[in-house]
Design goal:
With 354 residues, the protein is α/β, with parallel strands linked by helices. The protein is built from twelve helices and 17 strands. The mean pLDDT is 93.
Protein backbone atom coordinates (compact mmCIF):
# COMPACT_ATOMS: atom_id res chain seq x y z
CA UNK A 1 0.00 0.00 0.00
CA UNK A 2 0.96 3.65 -0.40
CA UNK A 3 1.28 5.88 2.67
CA UNK A 4 2.59 9.32 3.58
CA UNK A 5 5.36 8.57 6.05
CA UNK A 6 6.68 11.16 8.52
CA UNK A 7 10.38 10.74 9.08
CA UNK A 8 12.63 13.40 10.59
CA UNK A 9 10.00 16.12 10.08
CA UNK A 10 9.33 15.36 6.41
CA UNK A 11 6.51 13.53 4.64
CA UNK A 12 7.35 11.16 1.81
CA UNK A 13 5.08 8.88 -0.21
CA UNK A 14 6.27 5.32 0.36
CA UNK A 15 5.18 1.76 -0.31
CA UNK A 16 4.56 -0.18 2.89
CA UNK A 17 3.43 -3.76 3.54
CA UNK A 18 -0.33 -4.17 3.65
CA UNK A 19 -1.54 -4.40 7.27
CA UNK A 20 -2.81 -7.82 8.35
CA UNK A 21 -5.71 -7.86 10.84
CA UNK A 22 -5.45 -9.94 14.00
CA UNK A 23 -8.43 -11.31 15.90
CA UNK A 24 -10.88 -8.54 16.73
CA UNK A 25 -9.38 -6.14 14.18
CA UNK A 26 -10.84 -4.73 10.97
CA UNK A 27 -8.98 -4.02 7.73
CA UNK A 28 -10.22 -0.71 6.37
CA UNK A 29 -9.50 1.76 3.59
CA UNK A 30 -9.39 5.37 4.80
CA UNK A 31 -11.75 7.57 2.80
CA UNK A 32 -10.95 10.91 4.43
CA UNK A 33 -9.01 12.00 7.48
CA UNK A 34 -8.80 15.38 9.16
CA UNK A 35 -5.57 17.18 10.01
CA UNK A 36 -5.37 17.86 13.75
CA UNK A 37 -3.45 20.57 15.58
CA UNK A 38 -1.51 17.83 17.35
CA UNK A 39 -0.44 16.56 13.91
CA UNK A 40 1.05 19.96 13.15
CA UNK A 41 2.99 19.95 16.40
CA UNK A 42 4.12 16.35 15.94
CA UNK A 43 5.57 17.10 12.52
CA UNK A 44 7.56 20.13 13.68
CA UNK A 45 8.28 19.27 17.33
CA UNK A 46 8.08 15.49 17.56
CA UNK A 47 10.81 15.18 20.20
CA UNK A 48 9.02 17.63 22.50
CA UNK A 49 5.61 16.02 22.10
CA UNK A 50 6.91 12.49 22.57
CA UNK A 51 8.95 13.41 25.64
CA UNK A 52 5.85 14.98 27.18
CA UNK A 53 3.62 11.95 26.56
CA UNK A 54 6.25 9.50 27.71
CA UNK A 55 6.86 11.47 30.93
CA UNK A 56 3.10 11.30 31.48
CA UNK A 57 3.31 7.52 31.31
CA UNK A 58 1.97 6.80 27.80
CA UNK A 59 4.18 3.80 26.93
CA UNK A 60 2.54 3.19 23.55
CA UNK A 61 3.27 6.64 22.13
CA UNK A 62 5.55 6.85 19.10
CA UNK A 63 9.33 6.97 19.09
CA UNK A 64 10.18 10.20 17.19
CA UNK A 65 13.33 8.61 15.81
CA UNK A 66 11.26 6.03 13.92
CA UNK A 67 8.92 6.51 10.93
CA UNK A 68 5.23 7.04 11.60
CA UNK A 69 2.08 7.29 9.45
CA UNK A 70 -0.19 9.88 11.01
CA UNK A 71 -3.95 10.44 10.76
CA UNK A 72 -6.49 9.78 13.53
CA UNK A 73 -9.66 11.71 12.52
CA UNK A 74 -11.01 9.31 9.93
CA UNK A 75 -13.95 7.78 8.13
CA UNK A 76 -13.13 4.45 6.49
CA UNK A 77 -14.57 1.79 4.22
CA UNK A 78 -14.18 -1.86 5.18
CA UNK A 79 -12.00 -3.87 2.83
CA UNK A 80 -13.00 -7.25 4.25
CA UNK A 81 -16.19 -8.35 6.03
CA UNK A 82 -15.92 -9.12 9.72
CA UNK A 83 -18.65 -10.14 12.15
CA UNK A 84 -21.59 -7.76 11.77
CA UNK A 85 -19.59 -5.48 9.45
CA UNK A 86 -19.91 -5.96 5.69
CA UNK A 87 -17.26 -5.27 3.07
CA UNK A 88 -17.69 -1.76 1.68
CA UNK A 89 -19.45 -0.50 4.79
CA UNK A 90 -18.43 2.95 5.98
CA UNK A 91 -17.28 3.15 9.59
CA UNK A 92 -15.79 5.54 12.12
CA UNK A 93 -13.89 4.46 15.18
CA UNK A 94 -11.72 5.43 18.11
CA UNK A 95 -8.05 5.61 17.07
CA UNK A 96 -6.76 3.05 19.57
CA UNK A 97 -5.32 -0.45 19.20
CA UNK A 98 -3.77 -2.74 21.79
CA UNK A 99 -0.11 -3.56 21.19
CA UNK A 100 2.64 -5.25 23.19
CA UNK A 101 3.06 -2.16 25.41
CA UNK A 102 -0.67 -1.70 25.94
CA UNK A 103 -2.92 0.86 24.27
CA UNK A 104 -1.41 2.58 21.25
CA UNK A 105 -2.79 5.71 19.59
CA UNK A 106 -3.32 5.19 15.87
CA UNK A 107 -1.58 7.97 13.98
CA UNK A 108 1.04 8.34 16.74
CA UNK A 109 2.24 4.75 16.76
CA UNK A 110 5.26 3.23 15.05
CA UNK A 111 3.51 -0.14 15.06
CA UNK A 112 0.06 0.71 13.63
CA UNK A 113 -0.26 3.19 10.78
CA UNK A 114 -2.81 5.99 10.76
CA UNK A 115 -5.21 7.10 8.04
CA UNK A 116 -2.77 8.96 5.79
CA UNK A 117 -2.46 5.67 3.94
CA UNK A 118 -4.41 3.35 1.65
CA UNK A 119 -5.21 0.81 4.39
CA UNK A 120 -5.26 0.60 8.19
CA UNK A 121 -6.32 -1.60 11.09
CA UNK A 122 -9.08 -0.77 13.56
CA UNK A 123 -10.43 -2.33 16.74
CA UNK A 124 -13.83 -3.77 15.78
CA UNK A 125 -15.17 -3.16 19.29
CA UNK A 126 -14.43 0.57 18.94
CA UNK A 127 -16.07 1.11 15.53
CA UNK A 128 -19.51 2.39 14.54
CA UNK A 129 -21.31 2.09 11.19
CA UNK A 130 -22.01 5.32 9.33
CA UNK A 131 -25.68 5.77 8.35
CA UNK A 132 -26.42 6.43 4.69
CA UNK A 133 -27.65 9.99 5.36
CA UNK A 134 -24.34 11.08 6.95
CA UNK A 135 -21.78 12.34 4.39
CA UNK A 136 -18.32 10.83 4.65
CA UNK A 137 -16.68 14.23 5.28
CA UNK A 138 -19.00 14.95 8.21
CA UNK A 139 -18.62 11.46 9.69
CA UNK A 140 -14.86 12.09 9.89
CA UNK A 141 -15.53 14.88 12.40
CA UNK A 142 -16.58 12.38 15.07
CA UNK A 143 -13.12 12.15 16.64
CA UNK A 144 -12.43 15.88 17.12
CA UNK A 145 -16.04 16.46 18.18
CA UNK A 146 -15.50 13.83 20.89
CA UNK A 147 -12.87 16.10 22.44
CA UNK A 148 -15.52 18.82 22.75
CA UNK A 149 -18.09 16.38 24.13
CA UNK A 150 -15.61 15.38 26.84
CA UNK A 151 -14.65 18.98 27.65
CA UNK A 152 -18.28 20.07 28.05
CA UNK A 153 -19.10 17.02 30.18
CA UNK A 154 -16.11 17.60 32.46
CA UNK A 155 -17.00 21.28 32.91
CA UNK A 156 -20.16 20.44 34.84
CA UNK A 157 -22.13 22.56 32.37
CA UNK A 158 -25.85 22.93 32.98
CA UNK A 159 -28.69 25.29 32.14
CA UNK A 160 -27.73 27.64 34.99
CA UNK A 161 -24.29 28.43 33.51
CA UNK A 162 -23.05 31.09 31.10
CA UNK A 163 -20.16 30.17 28.81
CA UNK A 164 -17.16 31.70 27.10
CA UNK A 165 -15.05 29.95 24.49
CA UNK A 166 -11.67 31.61 24.11
CA UNK A 167 -10.01 30.66 20.84
CA UNK A 168 -12.17 29.60 17.89
CA UNK A 169 -9.95 27.11 16.16
CA UNK A 170 -11.47 23.70 15.51
CA UNK A 171 -11.64 22.67 19.19
CA UNK A 172 -13.30 25.92 20.27
CA UNK A 173 -15.77 25.76 17.40
CA UNK A 174 -16.70 22.17 18.23
CA UNK A 175 -17.29 23.20 21.86
CA UNK A 176 -19.62 25.99 20.75
CA UNK A 177 -21.52 23.53 18.54
CA UNK A 178 -21.75 21.02 21.38
CA UNK A 179 -23.06 23.58 23.86
CA UNK A 180 -25.73 24.77 21.44
CA UNK A 181 -26.70 21.20 20.50
CA UNK A 182 -27.37 20.61 24.20
CA UNK A 183 -29.46 23.77 24.39
CA UNK A 184 -26.96 25.49 26.70
CA UNK A 185 -26.04 29.16 26.75
CA UNK A 186 -25.57 32.00 26.41
CA UNK A 187 -22.20 31.47 24.74
CA UNK A 188 -19.58 34.20 24.29
CA UNK A 189 -16.88 33.51 21.67
CA UNK A 190 -13.56 35.39 21.87
CA UNK A 191 -11.28 35.19 18.83
CA UNK A 192 -8.86 37.63 17.11
CA UNK A 193 -9.29 36.24 13.59
CA UNK A 194 -12.25 37.63 11.63
CA UNK A 195 -12.81 34.46 9.58
CA UNK A 196 -13.00 32.35 12.71
CA UNK A 197 -15.27 34.85 14.44
CA UNK A 198 -17.62 34.40 11.48
CA UNK A 199 -17.41 30.61 11.87
CA UNK A 200 -18.18 30.93 15.60
CA UNK A 201 -21.37 32.74 14.66
CA UNK A 202 -22.29 29.93 12.25
CA UNK A 203 -21.76 27.40 15.06
CA UNK A 204 -24.25 29.32 17.20
CA UNK A 205 -22.30 31.65 19.49
CA UNK A 206 -24.58 34.32 20.96
CA UNK A 207 -21.99 37.09 21.06
CA UNK A 208 -18.59 37.19 19.31
CA UNK A 209 -15.83 39.56 20.42
CA UNK A 210 -12.16 40.22 19.82
CA UNK A 211 -9.78 39.75 22.76
CA UNK A 212 -9.77 42.76 25.06
CA UNK A 213 -13.11 44.11 23.82
CA UNK A 214 -14.68 46.20 26.57
CA UNK A 215 -18.05 44.59 25.88
CA UNK A 216 -16.81 41.39 27.52
CA UNK A 217 -16.82 42.55 31.16
CA UNK A 218 -20.16 44.31 30.63
CA UNK A 219 -21.66 41.09 29.22
CA UNK A 220 -20.65 39.15 32.32
CA UNK A 221 -21.89 41.89 34.66
CA UNK A 222 -25.26 41.99 32.91
CA UNK A 223 -25.58 38.27 33.68
CA UNK A 224 -24.92 38.96 37.37
CA UNK A 225 -21.40 37.47 37.15
CA UNK A 226 -18.98 40.37 37.75
CA UNK A 227 -15.24 39.99 37.29
CA UNK A 228 -14.07 41.81 40.43
CA UNK A 229 -14.39 40.45 43.97
CA UNK A 230 -16.11 43.49 45.49
CA UNK A 231 -18.63 43.69 42.66
CA UNK A 232 -19.34 39.98 42.98
CA UNK A 233 -19.94 40.23 46.72
CA UNK A 234 -22.44 43.05 46.14
CA UNK A 235 -24.57 41.05 43.67
CA UNK A 236 -27.90 39.91 45.10
CA UNK A 237 -29.58 36.63 44.23
CA UNK A 238 -32.23 38.29 42.11
CA UNK A 239 -29.54 40.02 40.02
CA UNK A 240 -27.90 36.75 38.97
CA UNK A 241 -29.25 35.56 35.63
CA UNK A 242 -26.79 32.65 35.76
CA UNK A 243 -25.17 31.07 38.79
CA UNK A 244 -21.73 30.31 37.35
CA UNK A 245 -19.41 31.10 34.47
CA UNK A 246 -17.64 28.35 32.53
CA UNK A 247 -14.72 29.49 30.39
CA UNK A 248 -13.10 27.13 27.88
CA UNK A 249 -9.46 27.95 27.13
CA UNK A 250 -8.83 26.72 23.57
CA UNK A 251 -5.71 28.70 22.70
CA UNK A 252 -2.85 26.82 24.37
CA UNK A 253 -0.32 29.65 24.60
CA UNK A 254 1.78 30.80 27.58
CA UNK A 255 0.09 33.51 29.62
CA UNK A 256 -3.46 32.53 28.71
CA UNK A 257 -4.32 30.99 32.09
CA UNK A 258 -3.44 34.15 34.02
CA UNK A 259 -5.09 36.35 31.39
CA UNK A 260 -8.33 34.40 31.78
CA UNK A 261 -8.03 34.33 35.57
CA UNK A 262 -7.90 38.13 35.53
CA UNK A 263 -10.73 38.62 33.04
CA UNK A 264 -13.23 35.90 33.99
CA UNK A 265 -15.98 36.27 36.60
CA UNK A 266 -15.34 35.43 40.23
CA UNK A 267 -16.22 31.80 40.98
CA UNK A 268 -15.77 30.70 37.35
CA UNK A 269 -14.62 27.30 36.17
CA UNK A 270 -11.72 27.48 33.71
CA UNK A 271 -11.64 24.41 31.48
CA UNK A 272 -8.25 24.05 29.82
CA UNK A 273 -8.50 22.35 26.42
CA UNK A 274 -5.74 24.25 24.61
CA UNK A 275 -2.50 22.28 24.56
CA UNK A 276 0.20 24.69 25.76
CA UNK A 277 3.55 22.96 25.25
CA UNK A 278 5.60 25.39 27.32
CA UNK A 279 6.04 26.07 31.03
CA UNK A 280 3.36 28.58 31.98
CA UNK A 281 3.54 30.20 35.43
CA UNK A 282 0.34 31.04 37.28
CA UNK A 283 -0.26 32.87 40.56
CA UNK A 284 -2.24 30.40 42.69
CA UNK A 285 -3.13 32.99 45.34
CA UNK A 286 -4.86 35.11 42.70
CA UNK A 287 -6.99 32.19 41.55
CA UNK A 288 -7.71 31.38 45.19
CA UNK A 289 -8.96 34.89 45.99
CA UNK A 290 -11.36 34.76 43.04
CA UNK A 291 -12.47 31.20 43.96
CA UNK A 292 -11.63 29.92 40.49
CA UNK A 293 -11.71 26.26 39.53
CA UNK A 294 -9.02 25.11 37.10
CA UNK A 295 -9.90 21.94 35.17
CA UNK A 296 -7.60 20.31 32.61
CA UNK A 297 -9.20 17.89 30.14
CA UNK A 298 -7.77 15.45 27.62
CA UNK A 299 -9.20 13.05 25.03
CA UNK A 300 -12.55 11.28 25.62
CA UNK A 301 -14.13 7.94 26.50
CA UNK A 302 -15.74 5.42 24.12
CA UNK A 303 -19.14 6.53 25.43
CA UNK A 304 -18.33 10.16 24.62
CA UNK A 305 -17.21 9.19 21.12
CA UNK A 306 -20.61 7.51 20.74
CA UNK A 307 -22.35 10.68 21.95
CA UNK A 308 -20.41 12.74 19.43
CA UNK A 309 -21.40 10.47 16.57
CA UNK A 310 -25.03 10.46 17.73
CA UNK A 311 -24.94 14.27 17.58
CA UNK A 312 -23.54 14.13 14.04
CA UNK A 313 -26.12 11.60 12.87
CA UNK A 314 -28.97 13.66 14.34
CA UNK A 315 -28.03 16.75 12.34
CA UNK A 316 -25.14 16.34 9.87
CA UNK A 317 -25.69 19.84 8.48
CA UNK A 318 -24.82 21.46 11.82
CA UNK A 319 -21.10 20.82 11.43
CA UNK A 320 -20.86 20.95 7.61
CA UNK A 321 -19.39 24.50 7.54
CA UNK A 322 -16.41 23.26 9.55
CA UNK A 323 -15.09 21.28 6.56
CA UNK A 324 -13.29 23.97 4.58
CA UNK A 325 -11.28 21.90 2.12
CA UNK A 326 -10.09 18.51 0.92
CA UNK A 327 -6.70 17.55 -0.53
CA UNK A 328 -5.26 14.34 -1.91
CA UNK A 329 -2.86 12.10 -0.04
CA UNK A 330 0.19 13.44 -1.87
CA UNK A 331 -0.87 17.01 -1.03
CA UNK A 332 -0.48 16.49 2.71
CA UNK A 333 2.32 19.05 2.96
CA UNK A 334 0.11 21.73 1.40
CA UNK A 335 -2.63 20.98 3.93
CA UNK A 336 -0.21 21.40 6.81
CA UNK A 337 1.09 24.65 5.30
CA UNK A 338 -2.42 26.05 4.90
CA UNK A 339 -3.18 25.38 8.55
CA UNK A 340 0.09 26.66 10.01
CA UNK A 341 0.62 29.70 7.80
CA UNK A 342 -2.80 30.57 6.42
CA UNK A 343 -5.19 33.41 7.15
CA UNK A 344 -7.37 31.40 9.52
CA UNK A 345 -10.10 30.70 6.97
CA UNK A 346 -9.19 27.00 6.89
CA UNK A 347 -10.80 25.22 9.83
CA UNK A 348 -10.90 21.49 9.18
CA UNK A 349 -8.94 20.28 6.17
CA UNK A 350 -9.49 16.68 5.12
CA UNK A 351 -7.08 14.38 3.34
CA UNK A 352 -8.60 11.88 0.90
CA UNK A 353 -6.67 8.63 0.48
CA UNK A 354 -7.89 7.93 -3.05
Amino acid sequence: MKAMVLNDGRFTLESLPDPVPAAGQLLARPLVCGVCGSDLHARDHADHLCDLLQRAGFRGFMDPAQPVVMGHEFCCELIEPSGSFAAGQRIVGLPFLTGPQGIELIGYSNRYNGAFAEAMLLDAALCLPVPDHVPTDIAALAEPLSVAVHAVAESGADADCAFAVVGCGPVGLFIIARLKALGLGPVLAIEPNAARRAMAERMGADIILSPGDAAGPAWWTDLGLPIGMSDAMAVTTDQKRRSRAVVFECVGKPGMLMTLAKTCPTGATLVVVGNCMETDPIEPAFLLQKSLTLRFVFAYSPAEFGEAFTMIAANPDRLAPMVTGTVGLTELDSAFAALTGGDGSQVKLLVASA
